[in-house]
Write a structure and sequence with these properties.
Structural class: alpha+beta
Largest sheet: 8 strands, mixed
Shape: elongated
Number of helices: 13
Oligomer: single chain
Strand order of the largest sheet: 1-11-12-13-16-10-9-4
Radius of gyration: 27 Å
Length: 435
């Protein structure tokens, strides 16, 4: 969440940032925070004064009792008891403040473009053409022609080559839980191992975290209370199935003070991910396009504020390198203010082209959250020079999510003789074609 220091010292910038995200009632929300903060600080001053007086009065109680002045002693005791009420007032004010701050999203960086919807996102890079400052999703008309006659969509290819059984998944669980078979399962494992090996080469330490987390972890990274409707909830134990490895991996550093010399911390993790995807329909949910359970490799960084933008750049280069090695047509989008997530300060999406579907599929989001998550997590580092503790910056990205990568690989590499395997995956697959 946003820090009170930022809201108090840069009020106008915060309001402008919230307006760029099209957060309704931005000024009113910040005014309310400032008003509650004023009440909270005034209550704190009164409490401090009261505690000071108590300290002096407490010594009088014993003396008055010895002198037989019981009534006077009781009056002093009553004054001392006032602090308990003030403590409760302070606790309520703090609870109200936390509730308010949790309802306010992060503010975007200055370089985040204006815009309301995905159509306003800027296409900043592609391996199809040189991009200009005027390229947006809405006016993008450069799509690859891969020269495949009558290309089949991946769900038909999966059936033709017995790679994925969507109907069997419905039988076992429900829609959105596919069963991978034979070379389909091998392709999943090949991609997972390839992505993890590439992450390790880039200096990431692999983590194997739980895929079920408690509510505190969901709160720490901002899934709660904002996105509880999209998460699977185990009600008896009050646990949540993770929507991404970002949640457990980032929470490793909850309530931790790190040494500056250890930053940046670089972790990666392969996990299954679970999302309810409520409200999804139509072409967006066909085949592998939108699943309730899927595999993903996540990269996470914890960094110093002055170095986090460089970390973000390195993460973007890492994800782009994966797409290049998979030989997929891709484009990189800088998300506009209105399409940014609740918690991010800046986010880039990676999309690959699907030949048979004739559309772009998102396969990665790489975000810098500034101090927003760290403030909720109480993730700090000790400055080597000043010895003071400061909030870290947190960053994460998909590197990569498998379903739409698989969809694009199947569709874009189909031939009359089978589906070609990109050279980078051949050592992991043990074959160069699926036939």
């Amino acid at each position: 969440m946003l820090t009170l220091k930022l809201i108090n010292e840069e009020t106008e910038r915060v309001i402008r940032g919230l307006e760029k995200k099209h957060f309704a009632g931005a000024k009113e929300a910040i005014d309310q925070v400032l008003a509650v903060d004023k009440r909270r600080r005034e209550a704190q001053q009164e409490l401090d004064k009261c505690l000071n007086e108590q300290k002096q009065l407490s010594g009088q109680i014993g003396r008055l009792m010895k002198e037989g002045k019981k009534d006077e002693a009781e009056q002093v005791k009553a004054q001392v008891a006032q602090s308990k009420e003030m403590d409760e007032t302070m606790a309520k004010a703090q609870e109200e403040m936390t509730t308010l701050l949790c309802q306010i999203p992060n503010i975007p960086y200055d370089e985040v473009p204006e815009g309301r919807t995905a159509e306003d996102n800027h296409v900043v890079k592609s391996n199809l053409k040189e991009c200009t400052a005027n390229d947006t999703v809405g006016n993008w008309d450069v799509n690859p022609s891969l020269g495949i006659a009558n290309p089949l969509p991946h769900w038909e290819l999966a059936k033709k080559y017995n790679l994925i059984d969507f109907d069997l998944g419905v039988k076992i669980t429900g829609a959105g839980f596919p069963v991978y078979i034979g070379k389909g399962a091998r392709l999943q494992r090949a991609l997972i191992n390839f992505f993890l090996d590439e992450a390790r080469k880039s200096g990431y330490t692999e983590i194997m975290p739980p895929t079920v987390v408690n509510a505190a972890s969901g709160y720490g990274t901002g899934q709660l209370p904002d996105k509880e409707g999209q998460m699977y909830h185990c009600e008896v134990d009050d646990f949540y199935l993770i929507p991404t490895a970002e949640v457990p991996v980032t929470n490793i550093y909850r309530d931790v003070i790190l040494d500056e010399k250890d930053l940046p911390i670089k972790n990666c993790a392969y996990t299954e991910c679970f999302r309810r995807e409520a409200g999804s329909y139509g072409k967006d949910v066909r085949g592998l396009n939108r699943l309730h359970e899927f595999s993903k490799i996540e990269i996470v960084r914890i960094d110093k504020p002055e170095h986090s933008k460089e970390s973000h750049k390195e993460m973007l280069e890492h994800v782009e390198g994966l797409l290049k090695k998979l030989e997929l047509p891709y484009r990189i989008l800088l998300l506009c203010g209105g399409d940014q997530s609740f918690t991010s300060s800046i986010c880039y999406d990676f999309e690959v082209y699907s030949e048979a579907q004739g559309r772009w599929l998102e396969v990665s989001s790489v975000s810098n959250f500034d101090t927003y998550q760290a403030n909720r997590l109480k993730c700090r580092y000790r400055n080597a020079e000043t010895k003071k503790t400061e909030l870290c910056h947190t960053l994460n990205g998909s590197a990569l999510a498998l379903p739409r990568i698989v969809a694009a690989l199947l569709e874009n590499n189909q031939t009359e003789n089978g589906i070609k395997i990109p050279a980078a995956l051949v050592p992991y697959m043990g074959c160069d074609i699926i036939d």
